[in-house]
Design the sequence.
């Protein structure tokens, strides 16, 4: 086959998650501890070709556990195109709310279901979430927090200070960069306005970039306008 043709086919594959495994876990922040199965690795399944991808609306890919094998967080193709239904084994996985809350079921080949709503039902409530927080070197990190629960494995701790899972730098949202192109400029205004006017539905990355009121409330609302303008002017 002509070399150029091969390149085009490879490119076509890259934009189709169904045929191209995609993961975006930070190389320095890829492990979480589970009380009964030890370390879980969210990045390196199948030489990092099948690790976990944290998307705007849902997760995909595999967590690897030395002691428990594969844990599938979703195949990246929810039947409705938005969220996994989690009503049967045909359409399961972890969904991400715009405010960062994680919901749904992962499936471990040797351990059965892992419920990401488990932490929210605990006392005190420690829901599994993805949050934008300051990292140890002053950088912003989008990391997982809280707990998930597995019937056969107990708690999966996403909450540790030292060993946690975050997304890589390329997919970490930047303040007021509403189109997520790593540049803050006037082109971000229209995206912000569209969320304000509810012309488009935000994902967690949009909320991380635009929830800029004094006490962020997990939504993009009119209280965020002042912070957004200030952020834009300081860029
Ligand atoms: Ca931008
Ligand atoms: Ca807000
Ligand atoms: Ca508000």
Sequence:
């Amino acid at each position: 086959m002509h070399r150029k043709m091969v390149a085009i086919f490879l490119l076509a594959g890259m934009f189709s998650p169904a045929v191209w495994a995609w993961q975006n876990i930070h190389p320095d922040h890829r492990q979480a501890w589970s009380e009964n199965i030890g370390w879980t690795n969210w990045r390196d399944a199948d030489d990092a070709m099948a690790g976990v991808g944290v998307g705007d609306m849902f997760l995909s890919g595999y967590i690897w556990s030395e002691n428990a094998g594969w844990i599938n967080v979703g195949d990246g193709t929810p039947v409705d195109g938005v969220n996994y239904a989690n009503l049967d084994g045909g359409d399961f996985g972890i969904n991400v709310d715009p405010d960062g809350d994680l919901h749904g079921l992962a499936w471990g080949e040797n351990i059965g279901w892992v419920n990401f709503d488990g932490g929210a039902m605990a006392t005190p409530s420690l829901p599994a979430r993805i949050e934008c927080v300051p990292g140890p070197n002053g950088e912003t990190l989008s990391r997982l927090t809280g707990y998930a629960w597995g019937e056969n494995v107990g708690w999966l701790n996403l909450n540790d200070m030292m060993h946690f899972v975050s997304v890589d730098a390329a997919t970490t949202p930047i303040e007021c960069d509403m189109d997520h192109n790593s540049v803050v400029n006037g082109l971000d205004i229209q995206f912000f306005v569209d969320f304000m006017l509810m012309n488009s539905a935000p994902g967690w990355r949009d909320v991380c970039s635009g929830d800029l009121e004094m006490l962020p409330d997990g939504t993009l609302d009119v209280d965020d306008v002042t912070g957004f303008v200030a952020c834009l002017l300081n860029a």
User: Anything to note?
Assistant: The chain has six helices and 14 strands. The first strand starts at residue 25 and ends at 34.
